[in-house]
Amino acid sequence: MSHEEELAEQARLIAWLQEQLEHQRAVNAELRRAVADLARTFQESLAAAYEAGESGDLEAIRRITRANQQHWQSYLQQIVAAARREK
User: Helix axis angle, 58-86 relative to 3-55, nearest 10°?
Assistant: First the structure.
């Protein structure tokens, strides 16, 4: 392999690595957003459940619990989808 061919191969490899790095950064950003949304929603629902519990509103606790379960499922699906795109 000539010197020019080696340089061309190295340039292709660098371009591919840069593309992979950008892809990984995008996936990581998506995962960070999903985790931040999950944490924020969890804290909000925890506070709402606490308030409902303090007031004795069992129906509100049930609604909050069901909504929280749906949020968890949604965020888990986001995380799984992002992890699949990572490969």
Answer: 180
Strands (E), 19-67: none
Confirm if 19 and 34 have CB atoms less than 8 A apart.
no
Model pLDDT for residues 11-54, shown as the tens digit of each residue: 999 999 999 999 989 888 888 888 888 888 889 988 999 999 99
Phi/psi class of residue 2: alpha, beta or left (left: φ > 0; alpha: ψ in -120 to 50)? Answer: beta
- Measured between alpha carbons, how far is 81 from 33 in angstroms, rounded to an integer? 13
Closest C-alpha to 66, from 45, 38, 43:
45
Does the predicted model carry a pTM greater than 0.85?
no
Do 38 and 71 contact (CB within 8 A), yes or no?
Answer: yes
Mapping DSSP onto H, E and C, the string for 59-76 reads HHHHHHHHHHHHHHHHHH
